Amino acid sequence: MRPMRNKMVKCRNLKLGVGRPKIAVPITGHTMADILAAVPAIKAAQPDLVEWRIDFYDAVMDPVKLQQTGQQLRAVLGDIALLTTFRTSGEGGNLALTEAAYFDICATALAGGYTDALDLERYHDETAVKRLVAQAHQQNVVVIMSNHDFEQTPAQSDIVQRLASMVDWGADIAKMAVMPQSAADVLTLLAATNEAQQTLTQPVITMAMGDLGKVSRLAGEVFGSCLSFATVGAASAPGQISVERLRPILDELTLNN
Ligand SMILES: O=C1C[C@@](O)(C(=O)O)C[C@@H](O)[C@@H]1O
């Protein structure tokens, strides 16, 4: 029997949470030229969504440049959905920032009017996170709330509780990445995904990182993760495989009944 799926979330022309898992490709360029130059090869690979990792962008602290680059990226992407993510250094990102600067950058990205979705890390000040959720929703921007544990894999109940708390705080989609140290850890992540997708009202995105966790990036259809990050060129996290290799595996694992 096909597993039960949660509510669908629309992001531009994408329906997340229904049908097969969608494919996201990160852009990790440091300059506007690098960022825009990555687009033709990405478009040729036909991902469902592009993630702009603004923590890699040299001018991320300059609001005007951030918005202009975002708008140019939006224009060249055509109709591909765009997710903007600032990953803080505590969660595996590229740049250390004060809390205030993190929230300012997220607000600047939203005010730029170019993004279809925003990644918001769950483990920051509650009032500030909820204020950004409200701002995003006013602008019809999808909130993907996230948490990354680059050291280990929390217990199943802890992972589910973290995902549930994201939904409580207004996330449209709840995302959790863990670092497995054993095959048992990968099973824990998959079991937590299965439980969360059956019990939460919103879709979830999960992954176990590194080589041990690769299987979790392939198996979203079965366990209930609605988006898998894959590469065209540079990876943004350990264990990502190329879009070219991922797509036929997702096709193969499609549930037809
Ligand atoms: O949250 C995620 C997931 C990710 O960490 C991964 O493991 O594929 C890659 C990040 O770019 C993205 O923001």
Automatic annotation (TrEMBL):
Q: Where is the active site?
A: H148, K175
Pathway involvement of the protein, from the record:
Metabolic intermediate biosynthesis; chorismate biosynthesis; chorismate from D-erythrose 4-phosphate and phosphoenolpyruvate: step 3/7
Provide a Gene Ontology MF annotation, just one: 3-dehydroquinate dehydratase activity
In terms of InterPro entries, this protein maps to: Aldolase_TIM, DHquinase_I, Type-I_3-dehydroquinase
Residues holding 3-dehydroquinate:
E51, W52, R53, R87, R217, S236, Q240
Query: Any idea which UniProt keywords this protein has?
Result: Amino-acid biosynthesis, Aromatic amino acid biosynthesis, Lyase, Schiff base
Q: Which reaction does it catalyse?
A: 3-dehydroquinate = 3-dehydroshikimate + H2O
Which Gene3D superfamilies does UniProt cross-reference here?
Aldolase class I
Annotated signal sequence is none
Q: Does the keyword Lyase apply?
A: yes
- A Pfam family this chain is assigned to: DHquinase_I
**EC top class, as a word:** lyase
As recorded in UniProt, its EC number(s) are 4.2.1.10
- What role does this protein play? Involved in the third step of the chorismate pathway, which leads to the biosynthesis of aromatic amino acids. Catalyzes the cis-dehydration of 3-dehydroquinate (DHQ) and introduces the first double bond of the aromatic ring to yield 3-dehydroshikimate.
The UniProt subunit note reads as follows: Homodimer.
The record's listing under HAMAP family reads: AroD (MF_00214)
Family listed = Belongs to the type-I 3-dehydroquinase family.
Q: What is this protein called?
A: 3-dehydroquinate dehydratase
Q: Which organism is it from?
A: Lactiplantibacillus brownii
Lineage, broadest ranks: Bacteria, Bacillati, Bacillota, Bacilli, Lactobacillales
Report the gene name: aroD
